[in-house]
């Protein structure tokens, strides 16, 4: 059930409690978005802002949330009308098939699924299917008529990769073995004494793996203290500072953190390495496409506004939302 709540299909909150007559809010030719649907789109955007931003930035985003929603709704409806004209619009059967696949993957009955849709969006299943039909059809047009038309040459990709190698790196890693003596709640000296005993064992030529198995309080002792490959930032900063100062196969002195005494051995260290261009090609294409996408999309939408009859009948939010 929790998985489905993440899916819900981009919806972020329960239906608003605002009540009003459900009038036509936006119309493109004979296609419409109702005031109720417009409010639901606003609530989705508002909840997204609340999750993504804080402080003054959040305040600024919330100020423009209604206008942003109006703009989004107009564009969606223009694109949906275009999808119908181009024969790209999804049918009700297409949308139902997608939703049924989601429902079945979550092990829900039709009734359970419809109840969740109602709870999360405030829409009946019929209304929700209409919404998704419009939204998914618009996305199809964007991908086919806008995104796919922005061509990125191989030479551009290679140049970007060469100039921004630091942005496409496999992270630096290291590998250590550890002996951990937990301070616990008993005698604070007991762990230190045990750590010193382990250090003395090692100084006399004892094997680190054997020392970890004999002395360590960590579950890693089962593998001789070996933690495997670790990325920087995964462990305590004090440990990583020690790693950076050590040579390969060097064993540290006993050192202390808030919770334990440690002895570590550096087994391996790998610096950041550039990822091959084949591995990051799609990421580079998306990055190069983005600035062109905005202008190409604006031009495409303006052409649709010139082509279709767009009517915006609701420009101000309902009273309950504006208060």
TrEMBL record:
The keyword Isomerase applies. InterPro entries: PPIase_dom_sf, PPIase_PpiC, PrsA_foldase, Trigger_fact/SurA_dom_sf. One of its GO terms (molecular function) is peptidyl-prolyl cis-trans isomerase activity. It comes from the Bacteria. Residues 171-268 form the PpiC domain. It holds the Pfam family SurA_N_3. Coiled coil: none annotated. Keywords: Isomerase, Rotamase. The keyword Signal does not apply. This is Peptidylprolyl isomerase. It comes from Sulfidibacter corallicola.
């Amino acid at each position: 059930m929790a998985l489905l709540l993440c899916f819900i299909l981009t919806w972020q909150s329960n239906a608003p409690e605002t009540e009003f007559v459900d009038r036509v809010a936006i119309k493109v030719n004979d296609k419409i978005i109702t005031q109720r649907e417009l409010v639901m789109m606003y609530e989705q955007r508002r909840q997204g802002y609340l999750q993504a931003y804080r402080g003054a930035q959040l305040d600024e985003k919330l100020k423009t949330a209604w206008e942003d929603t109006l703009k989004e709704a107009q564009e969606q409806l223009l694109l949906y009308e275009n999808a119908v004209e181009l024969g790209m619009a999804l049918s009700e059967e297409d949308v139902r098939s997608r939703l049924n696949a989601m429902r079945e993957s979550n092990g829900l009955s039709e009734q359970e699924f419809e109840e969740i849709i109602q709870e999360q969006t405030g829409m009946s299943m019929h209304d929700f299917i209409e919404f998704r039909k419009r939204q998914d059809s618009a996305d199809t047009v964007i991908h086919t008529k806008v995104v796919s038309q922005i061509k990125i040459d191989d030479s551009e990709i290679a140049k970007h990769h060469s100039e921004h190698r630091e942005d496409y790196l496999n992270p630096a890693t290291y590998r250590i073995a550890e002996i951990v003596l937990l301070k616990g709640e008993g005698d604070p000296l007991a762990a230190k004494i045990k750590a010193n005993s382990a250090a003395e064992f090692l100084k006399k030529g004892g094997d680190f793996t054997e020392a970890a198995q004999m002395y360590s309080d960590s579950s890693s002792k089962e593998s001789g203290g070996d933690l495997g490959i670790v990325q920087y930032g995964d462990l305590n900063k004090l440990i990583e500072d020690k790693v950076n100062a050590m040579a390969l196969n060097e064993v540290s002195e006993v050192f202390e953190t808030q919770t334990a005494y440690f002895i570590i051995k550096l087994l391996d260290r790998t610096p950041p390495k550039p990822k091959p261009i084949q591995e990051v090609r799609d990421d580079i294409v998306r990055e190069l496409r983005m600035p062109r996408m905005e202008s190409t999309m604006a031009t495409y939408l303006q052409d649709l506004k010139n082509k279709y009859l767009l009517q915006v009948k609701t420009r101000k939010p309902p009273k309950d939302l504006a208060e």
